Every structure is written in structure tokens, then in C-alpha cells.
């Protein structure tokens, strides 16, 4: 009977600990949500979530562009001219460029399809709207003519982003195979 009480007591203690952890996590989530809402430009429905998704996707696509430029420069420099390309320095230079400049280079190199380039440009425009706190009704918050604050529009953006990722992976595979 004593062993059963100890086991039962351990279960109660474990459950209480788990409950306290959950409460702390919930308090922390509420704190961050409250803090984030103080620093955003809008209180519009879905603003914070759409902003987070757009900024995350933009960050990923900018990384794809950077890596694509570096990979092509390094590969071409090595293969065509037997250059000893300083990859870390090259990456640092490209990272220091504006996103607009990276878009122009990627577009000139035709790394991504015309459809993907339109998506990249629209995503950059959306990023600017969020980053610079445009007013809610500004058309810069539209993606393919529809407001980014709707589920269908975000889903469309994510689908288009997945196509860009697929093209990027295809490019890396081509470089690897040469």
C-alpha cells in the first residue's frame, strides 16, 4: 500500500509539474503576443501572422538568391577561368547588397522562371509594406490582386514559394552535376 501511495504521489507531482510548465509556456506566449502587438503598425485581423509568414518567406528567398549567385560565380569562375574564388568573401559581399540588387542579378542570370521572378518581386513588395508599416488599406498588401490577410492568398503565396524552392534545388543539382 505504501508503494502505491508513493507511485500515486509521484503521478500527482508529475502532473502538477507538467501543469506548471504549461502555465509558464502559456504565460510566455501571451507575453510575446502582447509585446509584438505593441510594435506592429496595424491591429488588422491576421496582420501579425501574415507579417510573420511574409517576412520568413522573404528571408528564405533572399537566401536562395544569395546562394544561387555565389554558387554560379564560384562554379563559373573555377570551371571557366580556374580561379581560386574566395567563397566566404564573395558571400559576404553578396549578403551586403540590397535585396533589389540581388533580384536584378538573379533576373539577369535567369536563375528562376519568369513566373517565379514575379513571385519574388511581389514578395519583396509585400515585405517592404510590412517592414515599413504601410497603412492597412494600401494595395502593397495585395498578392496577385488580393489582400494578403486572407487564408487563400497566403496559401497561394506559400504554393508559389514552394515552386521557387523547387527551381532553386534544380539549379543546385545542375551545378553539382557539372
Short structural description:
With 178 residues, this protein is mostly helical. Helices cover 77% and strands 2% of the residues.
What key attributes describe this structure?
178 residues; two-stranded antiparallel sheet; 2 domains; 2 strands; mainly alpha; 6 helices
Order of helices and strands: HHHHHEEH
Percent range for β-strand residues:
under 5%
Average pLDDT, rounded to a whole number, is 82
Structural class: mainly alpha
Give the tally of β-strands. 2
Number of domains: 2
Please tell me how large the radius of gyration is. Answer: 24 Å
Q: Estimate percent helicity.
A: over 70%
Task: Describe the global form.
Answer: globular
End-to-end C-alpha gap = 73 Å
Main sheet attributes: strand count, strand direction, barrel closure: 2 strands, antiparallel
Number of helices: 6
Low-confidence stretches: none
Strand order of the largest sheet: 1-2
